[in-house]
Amino acid sequence: MGCSAGACALNLGHLKAQSKLSVFFTMILLFMYLFYCLNGYCESIPRPVYDHQSNHLQSRLQEEGLSAYNASQLARKTSHDLDNRLQPNNISIANIYGARKFPQAIIIGVKKGGTRALLEFLRIHPDVRAVGAEPHFFDRFYEKGLEWYRTLMPRTLEGQITMEKTPSYFITKEAPRRVFSMDRHTKLIVVVRDPVTRAVSDYTQTLTKSPGLPSFQNLAFRNSTTGLIDTSWSAVRIGIYAKHLENWLRYFPLSKFLFVSGERLVTDPAGEMGRVQDFLGLKRVVTDKHFYFNQTKGFPCLKKPEGSSRPRCLGKSKGRPHPQIPAHVLLRLRDFYRPFNLKFYQMTGQDFGWA
């Protein structure tokens, strides 16, 4: 059957309009594809496969009997290794899952002060992404370069902050200058604890690794008769907080520091975490509802997270019983630290209450 001239013209016009629309939408799609590729997104399309593999691997490892923490660390490492093998050096590290950035905040000290507890408490916060292991970049691996350091960082999305902790930074002479060279706006967190208790805790940790270690008093005194303290022993030297802070204040103003009480982190974790979250510019998400006090360990643990079968406490290496130290040794140490403590209180504007 034929069609009238008018009807045929109408059909032809309709077909031309459809053809133009098809070309128009095809051009839009091509433009969007080119835009995403030029901005470094095309190479990141396969990432969900490896993210899925990492989650699957973590589940399998937990089924095999590894703790949730160890399984998570091993799965994350495997995923990270895959990521490193697949990503050429000339490809942008930015993708739709965020970017690896230098840390905006670093827990710089102190050893045996409560830094691990603070980091684990912070990692509950959805806007905090932190490196699990201590990178030791600014004290041991600085020669590897800043780009190497950045590859250690987790990916963060807009509104999230990147963090790391390495307690030895606080006592490393070169660390303040190196951190300043990376970013003068870096926020610095120092967890401090009674230096006498901290020294005994430090000694206890070393003693578990080296059972043949001399007694605490033999290491603490240069001369036991005169009571002269050996400040070359690291367990003693770390506790001279005022001296180490002076080094950092040559590069950073006091406003860039937050001094967290290791004692209050045990007795009032929610209160100290509130201060930390305020300092970092975060919403107060981590509160007292997240904690309970473990009588056996003697410090707070995190309540059972959703989907977990048990609460989260720090490892067996935390909360070890301390050896008995003669009272006169501890008293002499307190006398030694007192002027340094008073100076530290004055420098920070905080009285930590150490006798």
UniProtKB/TrEMBL annotation:
Pfam families reported for this sequence: Sulfotransfer_1 (PF00685)
Membrane topology qualifier: Single-pass type II membrane protein
Disulfide bond residue pairs: 301-313
Alphabetized GO MF terms: [heparan sulfate]-glucosamine 3-sulfotransferase activity
Annotated positions binding 3'-phosphoadenylyl sulfate: 112-116, 193, 201, 318-322
Active site per UniProt: 112
Domain Sulfotransferase: 103-338
Main enzyme class: transferase
GO CC, alphabetical: Golgi membrane
Localization annotation: Endomembrane system; Golgi apparatus membrane
Keywords from the named record: Disulfide bond, Glycoprotein, Golgi apparatus, Membrane, Signal-anchor, Transferase, Transmembrane, Transmembrane helix
Main location group: membrane
Listed transmembrane segments: 21-41
EC nos: 2.8.2.-
Family from the record: Belongs to the sulfotransferase 1 family.
PANTHER family xref list: HEPARAN SULFATE GLUCOSAMINE 3-O-SULFOTRANSFERASE 6, HEPARAN SULFATE SULFOTRANSFERASE
Name under which the protein is recorded: Sulfotransferase
Native species: Knipowitschia caucasica
